[in-house]
């Protein structure tokens, strides 16, 4: 499935420099997936592209998927669907709250029909009864799982490491944030043996993520070494504290790269903690994959401002 439905330029790689990196004798580069597109940014397009091609190939004009109120996946799907002339439906966890947050307002403006279901119903979204109900309500449709993670997404995310091999032939280790871990699995599948892949779990689901990755990679040969690290999730998915917010602010001032605290912020914070601890062998060339998601910052501003204020007050005590 290699039909190109939308064309995007290859995202750049940016080298970072700091006294810490020099002291630890490391090279660090960032794969800037956040620069892919203003709306369809980051790893979400890699997960979507083969799925949308499959929907087109099957002559299905409706695409349904699932997400929370700030879902980057829902946001990207709505925009891509609008550009491709596809009807999109977003099944959203929780009740509709007016006014809609910027993520959902964008999605609705791009023509996505939003269907809000209770958190209890959302827990059963993978069950045949729920999927049958959606097909009955919206007609024969192409259904993509939450976060876009399925076999076609794994194939698409393999392009990330295939691109890296061309852009940085000498890289040793690639690091990425993991929510569903579909991006990590795809990067492992697309990487050459001899590389190392490191995932940073951003939620409390380490064991289930490992099971999913192993299932997606089952039967593949000559895979590179990979690991999924736990303990950097700040208490769970979408959990954010003042220390993390301050880190993201300092990172942007130092390197000129904006982070969001749900995925990229946790990943970079974990990466720099590991560098401080001497985790990586001297001489390594590390590539951190910035998976985008910056659109979500708009709805988080009041919360982040409060955390910044509390962190500042704590520093003054």
Automatic annotation (TrEMBL):
Recorded superkingdom: Bacteria
Q: What class of enzyme is it?
A: lyase
Q: Which cofactors go with this protein?
A: pyridoxal 5'-phosphate
Q: Which InterPro entries match?
A: ACCD_DCysDesulf (IPR027278), TrpB-like_PALP (IPR001926), TrpB-like_PALP_sf (IPR036052)
Q: Which residues form the Tryptophan synthase beta chain-like PALP domain?
A: 9-292
Tell me, what is one Gene Ontology molecular-function annotation carried by this entry?
A: D-cysteine desulfhydrase activity
Which UniProt keywords are listed? Lyase, Pyridoxal phosphate
UniProt EC number: 4.4.1.15
Say yes or no: keyword Hydrolase present.
Answer: no
Q: Which family does it belong to?
A: Belongs to the ACC deaminase/D-cysteine desulfhydrase family.
- The protein in question is named D-cysteine desulfhydrase
Q: Which gene encodes it?
A: dcyD
